[in-house]
Amino acid sequence: MLVYIHIPFCDSKCSYCAFNSYVDKFHLKEKYMQALKKQLQHELLRFQAKKETIETVFIGGGTPSTVNPKLYEDIFALLNPYLVHNAEITSEANPNSATKEWLEGMKKLGVNRISFGTQTFDKEKLKLLNRAHTPQISIDAVHNASQIGFKNISLDLIYATLGDTKELLASDLHVAMSLPINHISAYALMIEEGTAFENRPQMSSEQLSLTKWLFQKIQKYGFKQYEISNFGTYQSLHNLGYWKYKDYIGAGAGAVGKLGLMRFYPQTDIETYIDNPLKIQEEMLSQEDKRLEQIFLGLRSVVGINQDILNTQELKKAEILLDEQKLKLENNILYNEDYLLADEIALFLTS
User: May I ask which residue range the UniProt record assigns to the signal sequence (predicted)?
Assistant: First the structure.
């Protein structure tokens, strides 16, 4: 199984961010981490009914690097007995708060993969996105992580922003690929409710031709695309676990967990979560929900779709797509090689 841990604290709120995060709740860090431990204890008991071990841990946010490694010690002590050998343990980090000391502290705890929220190496674009770091701070953070001994380092990059050009994106990639990284997550800017960009829809400007060019450019550097937003010479086991529909614990305010056909939703509000981290809403999925999710996820990644889960009508449609070379069939698995068409193909199959 997988474990996702949500850290909702941030130094500043990015203009595009719709995640459950707070810039004014730092005084709650210790209480929050205690609540997190309590929920994890509960979840481990629930999941251990299936005798599952932990293959991957992902600490996301928010900004995990705003929390001192000492506050993570109890969490790792709790998880360690369940971890498989060489488990992938990732922490997200913002370049401005991922100091050498923080990186060293997390590595000592067992974190072996770092994902930096770089977004861009362009000064003006960083200001536009309200990021709290400079290009040089990002560069220094990656080098620090590498020198400390992290072998698996990822960068987030944002595209489809107003003002993006081939020259700007090519420059971002040139800098990124000069660094000791083996993974890039490339996300299109989305305008979402409750963000600073909500009333400025013009800030998002995706052009399909530019997106295709960007994806091809990344792959020319030798970073294989293995999911619609992820590329690398290393493929994140945690990311792939979601696409493979594995079970996962979701710990923290606003996280989501899944066990079999049951989904779990801890409280989103941080104070409510701290008061009762075991107040968790449940949702039962149907077998049809699961099947449709597997189709959509499989087409967005290298996981593909096992033909056995398709009904007669869907199999006929799949034959059409195979004839048109929109899908590929290998060992009873249907693969989509153009992830930008994934949702359209899924809708064609299932409608």
Answer: none
* Whole-model pTM over 0.85: yes
CB 238 within 8 A of CB 90: yes
Residue with tokens 């861009």: 120
Q: How many independent structural domains does the chain possess?
A: 2
Are 100 and 188 in the same domain? yes
Residues 168 and 295 both lie in one domain: no
Shared domain for 318 and 234, answered yes or no, is no
CATH code at position 47: 3.20.20.70
Task: Indicate whether 16 and 152 sit together in one domain.
Answer: yes
Residue 46: its pLDDT value, please? Answer: 86
Last residue of a domain, one of 183, 211, 243: 243
Q: What is the pLDDT of residue 17?
A: 46
215 shares its domain with 345: no
The residues, ordered by sequence, that sit 6+ positions from 232 with a Cβ below 8 Å of its Cβ are: 154, 182, 183, 184, 223, 224, 226
Rounded-to-integer distance, Cα 75 and Cα 40, Å: 8
pLDDT score at 194? 53
The per-residue pLDDT for 15 is 47
- Cβ-contact 109, 145 below 8 angstroms: no
The confidence score (pLDDT) of residue 25 equals 67
151: containing domain: 2-243
Question: 């709740």: which residue's tokens?
Answer: 25
203 close to 161: Cβ distance less than 8 angstroms: yes
344 and 222 fall within a common domain: no
What confidence score (pLDDT) does residue 301 get? 96
Whether residue 300 contacts residue 285, with contact meaning beta carbons closer than 8 Å, is answered with no
Which residue in this structure is represented by tokens 């068409």? 341
Determine the residue type at 299. Answer: L
Distance of CA 266 to the CA centre of its chain: 19
User: Can you list the residues of the chain whose pLDDT is less than 50?
Assistant: 13-18, 191, 195, 197-198
Find the distance separating the first CA and the last CA of the chain, reported in whole Å: 32
